[in-house]
């Protein structure tokens, strides 16, 4: 198993894993009553294949098996670019579903590398892959000189919160996303340096 940058040709499987991370209930909520999960998957596949989308393959690290199967994904981006990157989703949803999401609350902000989606395929779970992806994403933040890594976790998912806590995340504040109450967790991308006095 290795962690590597995503490739455009993996867009379809990455889109499926992002949808699992979002959970299908949220996906249906975004697609609206007149559209299916397949319709939402088609939109997400297009967004993953783009370069200027929050879900872009260029923002995604993947866990890949020896036979080049995608075992898991972690999509993250500079929080200061959220509104710019979200335009692709807003425009895509308006075109595909006739729904305008341009007034969505911001789920992140500048100063944090935001983990938008983290998911490991069911057949590869309980092998430490999620931790590998999170640690690689913390390294990515450090390389980008972004001091914090942030994410939202559903208040009804203590198992996920325990995983994040095990790699250094802690509670920052309450939030909401996709009609769900969430907890905003953050982690430093590098240790605090001792102050240089004298």
Distance between the termini: 48 Å
Strand content is 25-35%
Helix count, DSSP H or I runs of 4 or more residues: 6
How would you spell out the order of helices and strands?
A: EHHHEEHEHEHEE
Largest sheet: 7 strands, mixed
Radius of gyration: 17 Å
Q: Residue share in helices?
A: 25-40%
Low-confidence stretches: 193-198
Q: What structural class results from the helix and strand content?
A: alpha+beta
Overall mean pLDDT stands at: 92
- Approximate shape: globular
Number-wise, the strands total 7
Strand order of the largest sheet: 1-2-3-4-5-7-6
Explained architecture:
The chain is 37% helix and 26% strand. It is of the alpha+beta class and 198 residues long. It has a seven-stranded mixed beta sheet, sandwiched between helices. Helix 5 links the parallel strand 4 (112-120) and strand 5. The longest helix has 16 residues, at 82-97. 36% of the residues are buried.
Layout of secondary structure:
Elements: E1 2-5, H1 11-22, H2 24-31, H3 37-49, E2 60-64, E3 70-78, H4 82-97, E4 112-120, H5 129-143, E5 148-154, H6 158-166, E6 170-177, E7 180-188
Parallel strand pairs: 4-5
Antiparallel strand pairs: 1-2, 2-3, 3-4, 5-7, 6-7
Descriptive labels:
198 residues, seven-stranded mixed β-sheet, 6 helices, 37% helix, 26% strand
Summarize the structure.
This protein is α+β, with helices and mostly antiparallel strands and 198 residues long. It has helices at residues 11-22, 24-31, 37-49, 82-97, 129-143, 158-166; strands at 2-5, 60-64, 70-78, 112-120, 148-154, 170-177, 180-188.
């Amino acid at each position: 198993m290795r962690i590597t940058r995503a490739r455009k040709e993996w867009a379809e499987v990455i889109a499926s894993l992002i949808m699992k991370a979002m959970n299908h209930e949220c996906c249906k909520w975004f697609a609206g009553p007149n559209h299916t999960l397949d319709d939402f998957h088609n939109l997400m596949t297009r967004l993953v294949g783009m370069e200027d989308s929050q879900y872009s393959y260029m923002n995604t690290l993947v866990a890949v098996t020896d036979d080049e199967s995608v075992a898991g994904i972690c999509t993250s981006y500079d929080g200061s670019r959220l509104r710019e990157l979200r335009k692709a989703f807003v425009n895509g949803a308006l075109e595909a579903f006739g729904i305008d999401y341009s007034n969505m609350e911001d789920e992140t902000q500048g100063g944090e590398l935001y983990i938008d989606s983290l998911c490991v395929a069911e057949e590869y779970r309980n092998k430490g892959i999620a931790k590998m992806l999170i640690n690689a994403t913390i390294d990515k933040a450090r390389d980008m000189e972004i001091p914090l890594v942030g994410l939202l976790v559903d208040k009804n998912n203590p198992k996920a919160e325990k995983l994040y806590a095990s790699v250094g995340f802690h509670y920052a504040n309450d939030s909401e996303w996709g009609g769900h109450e969430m907890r905003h967790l953050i982690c430093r991308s590098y240790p605090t340096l001792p102050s240089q006095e004298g």
